[in-house]
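Hi support team,

I've been running sequence recovery on a batch of backbones for a student project. Most finish fine, but this one hangs at about 90% for roughly twenty minutes before it completes. I'm not sure whether the input is malformed or the queue is just slow. I've pasted the structure tokens below so you can try to reproduce it. Let me know if you need the job ID as well.

Thanks,
M.K.
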């Protein structure tokens, strides 16, 4: 199997062949601008010393700051962070978020470390980033990824603030923070919610569903989700609430199936209590978690790590839609197999962009120092009340108070975040459809359309800077 970065670049090169940009410009867009490798000692709770290895890659500074998550995983390497940083560049361009791409990681399995040890690792990692100017509100803004959460982001924000000598915008150095530390409502579920909005958009397309021999709408669609972390859980929950049937859930130790449907909340509660989905009642256990990907379903959502669908299992995938909630879950060779079988792949660089979209909103909130909705919410409610009062007078009808309150309530921060996320995901999908139709005679995929879209937008940025014609 080729490396992750090589696979990303293969997809880039395939799309670049459909553009007319200068080859030198294409090489510049594809190149990773900077990679910082670091090692530092960690004193474990038992007094022993361990050397920690970590990275941060900044793929493109055509927009500032760069943006991308930090993962804690034993799979972290220079190849991985460079590939993920490249995907972030293209992802931000596709959904019109004005960031360059970045990614970072620490090579540890967080399950083997105490909370105190994780805090020491996180704060030292942040110190190293500050020392080399690889973090800052206008430089590079991290977020959570696999193995990290808002807790690590809080430690990063606190460490950066303590080193920034009173910088007023210090909290904007990182996103997905707890609300009390400048976070934004809706960020926790943002990526999973974005997956939901994207899938809903696709499934509501009569033309798209007709090509797949499926009926429009999410209701009744049978879905398998791989990964019950933050992204997989929220995607599954929103889809289930919309009437989809979760027939399978795969976790890192095992998988579950039930053709009649699994209760996502109940499965997640069991996982939290027992540390695994194994033993969950009213479901068939599957010891080999990868076998869960091959369950009979309409939609497969890989929401774990890269390289989950390969040439080995792609021929046995039964889903008609593969919705990439994780980064790079489908290898290039597997993608070819799936496309030849008529499977629709919703590419990661569009479908899982919800996190960076809402991170952008949080970054703006931190820079403006004003919560979204604070200034207009009461005014909107007053205006809606006056309109409702006029309707009541003209019709002689009095609305019940609870109904009137629901009609006249102004938009909260979460309402605005959800609305902005929904609009961003929908608009990006429509752009990809236009590009795909433009090349309909050559039968390009949505992934190739997404890369074409990203290349064109990044190229326009370089042109606007006068670097390339």
């Amino acid at each position: 199997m080729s490396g992750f970065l090589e696979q990303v670049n293969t997809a880039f090169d395939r799309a670049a062949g459909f553009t007319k940009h200068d080859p030198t410009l294409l090489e510049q867009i594809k190149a990773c601008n900077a990679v910082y490798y670091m090692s530092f000692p960690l004193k474990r709770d038992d007094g022993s010393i361990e050397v920690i290895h970590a990275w941060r890659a900044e793929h493109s500074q055509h927009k500032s700051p760069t943006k991308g998550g930090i993962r804690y995983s034993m799979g972290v390497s220079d190849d991985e962070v460079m590939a993920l940083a490249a995907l972030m560049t293209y992802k931000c361009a596709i959904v019109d978020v004005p960031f360059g791409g970045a990614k970072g990681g620490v090579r540890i399995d967080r399950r083997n470390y105490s909370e105190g040890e994780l805090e020491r690792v996180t704060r030292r990692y942040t110190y190293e980033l500050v020392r080399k100017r690889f973090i800052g509100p206008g430089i590079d803004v991290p977020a959570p990824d696999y193995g990290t959460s808002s807790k690590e982001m809080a430690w990063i924000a606190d460490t950066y603030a303590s080193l920034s000598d009173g910088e007023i915008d210090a909290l904007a150095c990182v996103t997905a923070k707890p609300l009390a530390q400048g976070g934004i409502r809706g960020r926790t579920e943002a990526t999973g919610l974005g997956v939901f909005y994207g899938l809903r958009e696709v499934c509501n397309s009569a033309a798209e569903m007709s090509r797949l021999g499926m009926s429009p709408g999410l209701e009744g669609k049978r879905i398998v989700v791989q990964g019950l972390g933050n992204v997989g859980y929220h995607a599954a929950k929103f889809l289930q609430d919309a009437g989809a049937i979760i027939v399978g859930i795969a976790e890192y130790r095992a998988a579950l199936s039930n053709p009649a449907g699994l209760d996502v909340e109940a499965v997640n509660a069991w996982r939290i209590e027992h540390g695994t989905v194994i033993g969950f009642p009213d479901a068939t256990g599957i010891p080999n978690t990868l076998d869960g990907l091959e369950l009979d379903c309409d939609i497969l959502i890989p929401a774990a790590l890269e390289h989950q669908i390969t040439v080995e299992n792609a021929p046995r995938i039964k889903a008609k839609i593969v919705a990439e909630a994780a980064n790079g879950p489908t290898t290039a060779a597997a993608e070819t197999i799936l496309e030849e079988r008529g499977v629709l792949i919703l590419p990661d660089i569009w479908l899982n962009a919800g996190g960076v979209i809402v991170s952008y909103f949080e970054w703006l909130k931190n820079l403006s120092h004003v919560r979204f909705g604070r200034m207009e919410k009461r005014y909107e409610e007053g205006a809606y009340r006056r309109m409702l009062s006029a309707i009541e007078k003209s019709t002689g009808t009095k609305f019940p108070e609870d109904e009137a309150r629901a009609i006249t309530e102004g938009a909260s921060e979460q309402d605005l975040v959800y609305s902005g996320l929904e609009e961003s995901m929908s608009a990006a999908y429509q752009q990809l459809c236009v590009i795909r139709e433009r090349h309909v005679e050559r039968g390009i995929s949505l992934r190739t359309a997404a890369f074409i879209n990203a290349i064109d937008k990044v190229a326009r940025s370089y042109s606007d800077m006068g670097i390339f014609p």
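--
Follow-up from support: It reproduced on our side and the slowdown came from queue contention, not your input. The CA atoms of residues 222 and 245 lie 5 Å apart. No action needed from you.
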